[in-house]
Amino acid sequence: MSISADAIDALLPQTQCTRCGFDACRPYAEALAADATALNRCPPGGDATIAALATLLQKPAMPLDADCGIDEPVARVARVVEADCIGCTKCIQACPVDAIVGAANLMHTVIEAQCTGCELCIPPCPVDCIVMEDAPALPLPRTRSDEFRRLYVARGQRLQRWADEDAQKRQRLRPTAGTFDPVAAALARARQR
Ligand code: SF4
Ligand code: SF4
Ligand code: SF4
Fold first, then answer.
1. DSSP code string of 26-83
2. 161 φ, ψ to 5°?
3. Of all protein residues, whose CA lies closest to atom 8 belonging to ligand 1?
4. From ligand 3's centre to the CA of 173, what distance in Å?
5. What is the Cα–Cα distance from 44 to 131, expressed in whole angstroms?
6. pLDDT per residue over 124-180, tens digit each?
7. Which residue's alpha carbon is at the smallest distance from atom 7 of ligand 2?
8. Has this prediction a pTM greater than 0.85?
9. Ligand 3 contacts CB of residue 107 (under 6 A)
């Protein structure tokens, strides 16, 4: 019986942390649908997700693969040590769910309720000013998967829109046949010299 990646993805926590060894939750779901990976590779999902996947895929449950990480007992969120932040924006670019706000050369801050705890913002920070902290007041990430998926999809759509707009702008700026192109003219003059 083949199970759709959509059905599998619906069971995953959507932290987009990559600890399963895939670029995000969706590629892991697709690999599971293709029977190309094991069902015990998602630490944020823990035993609950393994059990749900085992039922859906009609396979035996197994312990979480320790090589992927551990199932944290409480939610964890990133916090920017604001006094040290140099406003480089690298963390914003790395965050898969747009949970960081800030602008170039200004202090950045994490929107706690939106943070999946994926830790992907930590390696790019050039001054090591992002720390992870327990957030016992927040529900575990796997119980907030719908919201995290919505944020992740919205970010992907925004990045695609920006790429399309850039491509259109480049297209508009490209000289058309018959119009004077100062760069091409300068190159031609240089070649003649
Ligand atoms: S939440 Fe689980 S499935 Fe999603 S990226 Fe992290 S480890 Fe992979
Ligand atoms: S702020 Fe950091 S830890 Fe939180 S979701 Fe974004 S990248 Fe992940
Ligand atoms: S990567 Fe670090 S220094 Fe750069 S904006 Fe983010 S928190 Fe600040």
1. HHHHHHHHTT-S-S---TTTHHHHHHHHHHHHT-------TTT----SS-EEEEE-GG
2. -60, -45
3. 20
4. 34
5. 18
6. 999 999 999 999 999 999 999 999 999 999 999 999 999 999 999 998 888 766 667
7. 95
8. yes
9. no
Topology at the third CATH level for domain 5-57: 3-methyladenine DNA Glycosylase II; Chain A, domain 3 (1.10.15)
- Considering the segment(s) 73-165 as one domain, its CATH architecture is 2-Layer Sandwich (3.30)
150-to-70, 117, 153, 167 alpha-carbon distances in Å: 25, 16, 5, 26
As a whole number of angstroms, the distance between CA 123 and CA 94 comes to 9
Token pair for residue 35?
A: 């029977």
131 lines ligand 3 (CB under 6 A): no
Report pLDDT digits (tens) over 18-66: 999 999 999 999 999 999 999 999 999 999 999 999 999 999 999 999 9
Domain ranges of the chain: 5-57, 73-165
9 C-alpha vs ligand 3 centroid, how far in Å? 31
Residues 6+ apart with CB under 8 A from 63: 40, 47, 50
